[in-house]
Amino acid sequence: MKVRTLEQLGTLAEHLRTARDHKPCVRVCGGTGCRARGSEEVLARFQALLQEEGLAETVELKFTGCHGLCERGPLVSLAPQEIFYQSVEADDVRAIVTETLRRGVVIERLLAQDPATGRRVRREQELPFYRRQYRVVLRFNGVIDPTDIREYLALGGYRALGTVLTRMAPDEVIELIERSGLRGRGGAGFPTGKKWRLARAAPGAHKYVICNGDEGDPGAFMDRSVLEGNPHSVIEGMAIGAYAIGATHGIIYVREEYPLAIRTLEIALAQAREYGFLGEEIFGSAFSFDIEIVRGAGAFVAGEETALIAAVEGKVSEPRQRPPYPVHRGVWGHPTVINNVETWANVPIIIERGPEWFANLGTATSKGTKIFSLVGKVANTGLVEIPMGMTLRELIEEIGGGAPPPREIKAVQIGGPSGGCVPKALFDLPIDYESLTEAGAMMGSGGLIVMDDRTCMVDVARYFMDFLRDESCGKCLPCREGTHRMYELLTAICEGRATEADLELLEELAQVVKETSLCGLGQTAPNPVLTTIRYFRHEYEAHIRERRCPAGVCKALIRYVINPERCTGCLACLSPCPQGAIRGQLKQPHVIDQDRCIKCGICQEVCQFGAVEVV
Amino acid sequence: MQEVEAIIERYGAERRHVIAILQDIQAQFHYLPQEALREVAVRVGIPLIDLYSIATFYNCFSLVPRGEHVIRVCLGTACHLKGGTRLVEALERELGVPEGTMTSDGQFTFETVRCVGACALAPLVIIDGRYHPKMTQRKLTQVLARLRRIRPVAEVIR
Amino acid sequence: MTRLYINGIDVDLAEGTTLLEAAAHLGFEIPALCFHPGLSPYGACRLCVVELGDGRLVSACTYPVHEGLRVRTHSPRVQRARRMLIELLLSVCPSSKRIQDLAAEHQVERVRFSVRDERCILCGLCVRMCAEQMMAHAIGFVNRGYRRRITTPFDRPSEACRRCGGCLYICPVCELRCQGPEAPGVVCGSCATPAPTCPPIYEDLACYMGAAGACGTCVREPRPPARHMPDLTRRREGV
């Protein structure tokens, strides 16, 4: 049934709301993270038990998109009681049904714990992880079933599109987005309104809008969550953008490593067509628009816009120099607007609530909110959405919960392989585009990797360089050869074979790669190296001058030894050792034969007494 | 090849669909057979070398058959920090083959992948499409042992 | 016509002119290895980078002129960049006379990277020659990043290859071997230029890429495994 007018949409939404509002609801998180921990079994168990208990008609069961606190999955939340359960296993479901649903009894052991007080909290908003977030783009994640468009409609979905198509001219839409101050969320932060304006002005009958869902940054999964949890926000955003610039075709480019996101999008697109939000004469206007999905084939460089265009055209993802920019000459030579998933997802709500509302969030130059994937050596890992301008300290310590003692946080990597490391001393920096760039890092797509005292910054630089030399498309000399040579130099440093001259060469080479590379990958590839040298030069020097790895990571420079004072002689580490390098008798301290030890770390994994130490 | 023809029909014999066509061929055959590439080149009307470039450029394609069990170790940043490299080394030791190759008995193909977006569960290993969160070297040994005990049906019958 | 400023000199040029053409027009020579006027520009070697007014370095061969553009073709940053790029080139292709010449011209006197003698700089001229001029599409790029190389599909003798020799002709590094006094060295420092001995008997040999050097005329030291081509001489012998 196609929706043709705003009034029709309003009536439908009202009807859907009243039909659903009174039913109690169980929401099981179906994001990739929770599924990896068995949330599909949890869902199946709920289905079976609700049926068994005769509750299938009166209790709604939903499989939602990623709810963010992946560390504590599988997550189950109950409405309207507002009970938030974590680490739910299939065997816990019976108790939830019989105790909580039937009798209203809360199961304490499944509740989350406030890390500050140790108290069990019932509502997700009581947890610092959620309390301090400002969930705009993620507001429906964990609430709606992404495979049922009616849930999106019940909460006001597609009203923005209807308003735009029936009451606004394309130029008005662009002006509104410009006033909001929305900047591209993919990393560079280019003003979205400006990009749309350029595309609108570009001559050409066929124009395209593309959603960049490549999300190649290792450690980032914001876009995955949005696509899995609230795909319609992206579809609606793209339709609005297409109307604004005069495009009739849209493409969502999703990396093939996200099969669930692709499936969810396919369902969402089909439903959007069914309801008439995609296709001919949308909302009875002259505007026709549809979207196709193009799967990535596995290349980080495909996230770069000209490389992405090449992939869409059926070629290898080789970037080309700009100008001409995609807004003038994009896919198949037509004007194209490429925006990130999160950017598109922000558009409907900016239309709904107005640009002033959006511009009031954030800082003077960075408006709105940003989703970050907070991962690494921090207590609460997962997805968070915060207003721009929050400090790194607040994000890492209050939302993230800091590092579990005795570890201490040392730095945070922002912006993935294109970004840089920010040391603890700068954690009072506000999170916005300019501040981070000044510090040598980059907002990037939102990947935030927390590092502690057991992270070797030289090893981190080397890790990123290994990634980049592998992902470089290989077209231009400085990136292809330069990243490889930087990797060689970093390896030499990690293995204690380098000299001071090597460090100088590394810096010199990094500078040339940055300045001469053809595309953003090469131009930003040196950032991890340059920032770690800038803020952690002492670690580099320790490796070079003293052949020592202060964090105890670089294999060539460490040894595993058993502390005789902590070793209880339990023999547990002897047989797991792949080299048979540990000798010892029952109740006698064990000893590692250094000549045979390959430093795999299994003994440390196995030891329950913390007796294996790295020196 | 019939299946290849069907796949080409599904998308249309145009250059812009070649990557999707190759992905479906990869999914069907678990690798890209030479004959399939040649057929696509002819049907779509693009030089074979262009397809070969695409097949060797992107990570998801394999020009050699993959083993019965595909083990992918995630080496995203979070997974690396939490010991992903150790898992790779452990697999190289246990399977006796370097990363990116198949064991000689055809049982396992072991590769690395750069981030599947489940970073809170680092280090992650995906075995036959199933996600194994917070993997350790010990658990990996156990999983491999379990997989090895499952012999392919054809061998059992023989 | 657009007005731009190259090294401080103002000039009016037609739209669509590249900076490389613009500079040549004014007599400023910019080194460029992967560029050939008869083939599409590629912008891969980055030697032709020039400095724009906003501080960016861009490849001159692919950058179109526009109104008010300010360009410096030999600024200190550009020179530093070119020297490092040449140093990288020498580290992968030390025996090429063309690269040795560039090193001499740009005062590159040392190579601080470990040397891999690969005989190919992946400039792609041969690929574009084969595709655009000869319309054969017999060779192309394979793999990605530092594993990239140039070959035929499946590394097999190609049915599309017509043995025209265009690839060898256009190659900037395999055509001429350094014949200087210290040819085996990484940086020989002097560029003696005796005429290469290969061309007079080239037609009899029909040497095409894979067999480069097989006659022994153009190389003196034993060949390490070449990065680029399979040995196509096997096909000639009917294998």
Structural notes for this entry:
The complex is a heterotrimer of chains A (615), B (158) and C (239). Chain A has 615 residues and is of the alpha/beta class. Chain A folds into five domains: 19-126, Glutaredoxin (3-Layer(aba) Sandwich), CATH 3.40.30.10; 157-359, Rossmann fold; 369-452, Ubiquitin-like (UB roll), CATH 3.10.20.600; 457-545, NADH-ubiquinone oxidoreductase 51kDa subunit, iron-sulphur binding domain (de novo design (two linked rop proteins)); 559-615, Alpha-Beta Plaits. Chain A is globular. In chain A, 57% of the residues are buried. The model of chain A has no long low-confidence stretch (mean pLDDT 93). Chain B has 158 residues and is of the alpha+beta class. Chain B has two domains: 2-57, no CATH class; 69-157, Glutaredoxin (3-Layer(aba) Sandwich), CATH 3.40.30.10. Chain B is 49% helix and 13% strand. Chain B is built from eight helices and five strands; from the N terminus they run H-H-H-H-E-H-H-E-E-E-E-H-H. In chain B, a hairpin with a 2-residue loop joins strand 4 and strand 5 (130-132). In chain B, helix 1 (2-11) runs antiparallel to helix 2 (18-29). Chain B is elongated. Chain C has 239 residues and is α+β, with helices and mostly antiparallel strands. Chain C has a domain at 2-74: Roll (Ubiquitin-like (UB roll)). Chain C contains seven helices and seven strands, in the order ββαβββαααββααα. Chain C has helices spanning 19-25, 76-92, 97-105, 125-133, 166-170, 198-205, 233-236, and strands at residues 2-6, 9-13, 49-52, 57-59, 70-72, 140-142, 149-151. In chain C, the strands form two sheets. Chain C has a five-stranded mixed β-sheet, with helices on both faces. The longest helix of chain C is centred in the middle third of the chain and has 17 residues, at 76-92. In chain C, 44% of the residues are buried. The model of chain C is unreliable at 179-183, 188-198, 201-224 and 229-239 (pLDDT under 50). Chains in contact: A-B, A-C, B-C. Chain B binds chain C through residues 34, 37, 47-53, 56-57, and chain C through 131, 137-144, 152-154, 158, 160.
